[in-house]
Amino acid sequence: MIEPHAPAPPGAPPSRGSPARLPVRPDTGRFLVLTCVFVCAACGLVYELELVALASYLMGDSVTQASVVLSVMVFAMGLGSLAAKRLRRFAAAGFGALEIGLALIGGSSAMALYAVFAWTGDWGGLWADGPRVLLVAFSLAIGLLIGAEVPLLMELIQRVRRQDAGGAVADLFAADYVGALVGGLAFPFLLLPFFGQLTSSLLTGAVNVIAGGALVLGLFRRDVSRRARWLLLIAGLTVLGILGSAAVLVDDFERSARQALYGADVRVAVRTGVQEVVLTGGTGGRPLDLYLDGRLRVAGQDERLYHQALVQPAMTGRHTRVLVLGGGDGLAAREVLTHPGVHRVDVVERDPGLVRLARTDPALSRLNAHVYDDPRVRVAVADAFHWLREAPAASYDVVIADLPDPGITDSTKLYSQEFYGLARRALAPGGRLVVHGGPVATRARAFWTVETTVRAAGLRTVPYRVTGDAGRAVHAPRDWGFVLAAAAARPALRLDSHGGAASGALTEEGLAADARAVERTRVAGLRASTLVHPRY
What we know:
By secondary structure, this protein is of the alpha/beta class. The chain has helices spanning 26-59, 62-83, 91-119, 130-160, 165-219, 226-248, 250-262, 302-311, 331-336, 352-360, 362-367, 384-390, 417-426, 444-456, 508-519; strands spanning 266-271, 276-280, 289-292, 295-299, 321-326, 344-349, 377-381, 396-402, 427-438, 460-467, 479-486.
């Protein structure tokens, strides 16, 4: 039974617990409040996922970034709920102000993170801790505002129709959780594929401010003073204008940010559905650089040194059948085909868009010597781990793992003991495996964990590295570490005189010297990385 209350004076906020003066029936009003809860919950989860996705793309290590965002945001939601207790008397106006602030901060968060990353370089110097500071700041602010929504919405739904607290909580959280489900599914399957990270966050902010404004200025307008209504309307329209202007300019912003990040000669920038692929240079005598999700994978003049060091030592023996895991750019396959006696090269690449570029882009296909036109080269679009599980035993003389660095969480399973066990099973008697283990100088622990993990799979190893031109590109690593391995006996680190390295920068003396140098960086006491206990 609703207890009678004295009507509030015109323009004064209603007292706590008094029924709202609604323009609709209470049942309709309750439905509209729960609909707003649903929409706001969906928007809130999209903001969380946007921060996780962009932080993982810019900084790597998606597990760490997800942990930072979610833990800070949940903590901040608790603080926001406590802080909102003081706003319950002004629940309608307070909720409207919260949604305007949340739309502005959440909607612009992805663009702000990307802008700081693009225009401050590689997070060095003054900005050494910039990414995590900015990530934590956005997570904290968004979490505070999301947390403050719940007490105010609880107050509003009780003003619509008084009911027992347990029933009101159940209704509120049911709408909240269903909205979170819809937002969580919409982000990877609708927003990212059709709008991209920046536009999807701006669009989410617009939906957020419209939903909050419609609820407050429509359903609860009689509970808000005339002055507050005008302030909320002006602020909401201003935020919509900011978000709309940013959406109109987002393409120009992305182009400018890419030029700041990759240089002025960006030729190709596409999102393939698996990753973002950027090609710079390759014309007018400028070296071609290939970036995958912002990380330099092919570095101009250093490219040939890297791929020769990866491929050539593994080809000193029988090499009739060769498997390349990753390497969709075709450059590792190019080095394989410099050896006579190669009958078949299987390239297993998860990104068909990268393979398509390697076939069709004039500069990249010229660099890989048009390997995909060679009938000996066959491409399988698949995850390397799952593909190896189905590969016949003892089917390859050489297995080349040209994969991203092990520190990138998405590729950690491809540097596990289980993965190397599958690779060992695919090796023919006397076969050799070579693994790119990342930079030694800056990530020695990760590199030696790779070597330890290969040995744990029952293979005998020879670690080595080569050093590139660190001064040519600030994004390039100073060196690359590799692990050459075989099952029966420790392989010899040498070069085949018939291979492409014969006329390249690699020499057996240089490799031997680098192998001795890399041994001096060995980190003792490391344990193998497994699927259930990744150690990178």
